[in-house]
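cache lookup: miss for this entity combination. No prior model stored, computing from scratch. Input as submitted by user K.M.:
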Amino acid sequence: MKKLALLALAASLTACATANADSRTASASDKDWSAPKGADDRTPFASTYRPYPGRPTALVGATVYDGKGGRIDNGTVLLRDGKIVAAGDASLSTEGYDRIDGSGKFVTPGVIDIHSHLGDYPTPSVDAHSDGNEATSPMTPEVWAEHSVWPQDPGFTRALANGGVTSLQILPGSANLTGGRSVTLKNVPARTVQGMKFPGAPYGMKMACGENPKRVYGGKGRMPSTRMGNFAVNRQMWLDAKAYDGKKRDLGKETLKGVLAGDILVHNHCYRADEMALVMDMAKEMGYKVTAFHHAVEAYKIGDLLRENGVCSAIWADWYGFKMEAYDGILENAAFLRQADACVIIHSDDANGIQRLNQEAAKAQAAGRRAGIDIPDAEVIGWFTLNAARAMGIDGMTGSLEPGKMADVVLWNGDPLSVYSRPEKVWVDGALMFDAMDRKRRPVSDFELGQPGEGDVK
Amino acid sequence: MKALFAFAASTLALAATPALAQDVAMTGVTVATGDGSAPIENGAVVLRNGRVVYAGPAAGMPQTSVAAVEAPQGSWVTPGLFATVTSLGLWDVGAVSQSNDTNAGGSPFSAALDVAPAVNPASQHIAVHRAAGITRAASLMSSTGSIFQGQGAIIDLGSDGDAVVQPRAFQSVALGEAGARVAGGSRASAHALFRNALREAGQFGEDARIPGMESSQRDVRTGDDLPLDPRLSGENRERGTDVLLTRFDAAALVPVVRGEQKLFVMVERASDIRSVIALKREFPRLDLVLVGASEGWLVAPEIAAAGIPVIADGLDDLPASFEELASTQSNIGRMVKAGVKVAINAAAMENPRNLNQYAGNLVALTRIPGADGLSWGQAFAAISSVPADIVGMGSRAGVLTPGAVGDLVVWDGDPLELGSTPVSVYIDGVEQPLESHQSRLRDRYRDLDTSDMPKAYDW
């Protein structure tokens, strides 16, 4: 039976995240609010990810979608030293490359999920693993999702093998108005979360409007218990942040200052159109920018406003009805946004949905077609690759098959917008991390060793 | 097809008047009959008096006085999809508890609960899922204060206001982790509670004093020095002070014990499945159906040998709990290969309208080394004839067999493919409106022009 992890907010969590206001730690005097240095003058919790070895590889004869709207029939994609060397037609020389025959197959950039809770709500979904919502205060900009990520979450492996996911953003949950920092990961197994962190990715900050914060805190007899309370608490938080002078370290204020400086990107869970319009005005009042509204089931009602404000909508294809603010969800949401020239991203928010972002995009595309809005396949691929990368601030490094970008690539055994297709091979930074044709070329998490079904196709 | 759409508009306008079944003949379409066979290109379908008369190659179509409708190029015709297990008709907004009849944790009753009077044929979810090609469903509550979820109903998704086709079609019990929690904290408790309930039901009527106070308690001798409480022996004349089951709940379980009502058993773990299979030795008349069964592939031969059908989660592949450690998308393919009758569980997805997507995914697995999937025909049957058969409507629904209900869906392409959608839907031979709250919002927000009047006047 379907469980909505975000709705199941554990009320019994104990707050153990006390702010470590160690006076020896360096002040954020360099004003790099998003990555203040520690006493060792290093960025805390820095990425230790290094790409795994790969071979120079040429994918030839496949239909290539480059992620930025281009399509190349009988294309050639060259990978070397972890980077895309070229994506072009059959005339590209493949000398010095291992050739992989892609005829009848398709190549896309690695799939990117902008909204995941893998690691912070891992499986098995037991209470001891419920680490996604610090639901003890409506504002927790001081928490960082990376400190909750369990790298052994088997969900990462499914996202890779069945979904072709190579990068993903792990967000705190939506119990709080301000939920804390997100972390962007490479979908490569590691012993530590640092070993998964996407080098150079900016931080995000999770915010939420609507029903969840007012229900969680109203239910505890404290503010906010209404939508107007939501806004009052948020606005005061921003005013306090703007007044922060940085003389004494404050983890929450550092995050908020990073947002005000434009270094940390705001990912705002919000369903209703009218509420998104209010949030965009609050952002203008306080001097920050919303990068993307997540879930955004009513975005189609304000595609024009979203375009004018340059805010993306990260959405499902067909979720609706599970809560009051999701009542007006329609299948044409993505297509109507695209018609308004607003930015569309398909997201999962779900350990199962992340395995089928391509299919969700195809459903949204089909709904548009029935409503008379034809959107080319090559553009739809961008909904779960380059558009997600842009809103995560990593589009200069990944998200499309452009020379010099990370060689994050999926070879599909058929049209990725067909239900009958699956990832056949997945490369991350040019390293072959999944191969459906090689049973040992699939990750198995520590948790699954010695358990029934270990190493199964899943 | 224009004529058909005109007809749909008139049913909407006259929704209060029961519509009459149309006689329908379609040719030049791809026909999938739902029986597990491969689709038939250049096929034909004939409905008369609300029933299927013919489905097969166009060449074999019988002479009919009905004017044949030429469907658009590329159309497919299938039986209506049969969704089980669902909560269709039982809620409006999940998180708005007043609108949600799927949970009854505060009720004094459990097995006696009967969803039939709670089903709302005007539910938006019925309208939305009708437009997605689902014409019948088995609806059930998801939780009560007990291991029993009560009695589910078979409904049709027609617009005629008369949804319940068969009330009390099945009883449901949870015997895995969820059942253990509600039974007090252990699977042992869930099984004890279950056996106790069946024994009480078995004696219902013979013991008019249920749940009366005991008058005298006589121990049962078992041959050693340990007397056995008569309530554990299964032959007591005195019930003592048991309060685990109300009289009404015990009465509701009588048809289960007699095998006259199906019993859905919610379990996932391989060992739990074995424990359920073992119940047949103790209660041989039980008509069991496994629901969930994520680890079913580990015990597939035993399930097949016991002849127990399964409504299985289609794409679960995560160890979401300790009872699903071995879950894999190949579960259904492997069980079918072992000879188990398996339907795809509509409860194990975001909405039942994803059934065809899930079935399509099982077809995709046939191309992955080491995975087990289904053929197209098997996959389509797993969302049409097989679920219908499992809930007791075999050869009457979910299949285009002569005499079956006239539930028909015309699709604009392969019904398992992501881009396909129903263009018309018939239930009992009556063409159905495909409008809903969602389609009206779509039509209103097709553009964002409010220069003349607010959107509120656009309806």
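stored under new cache key. The longest helix of chain A spans residues 227-242.
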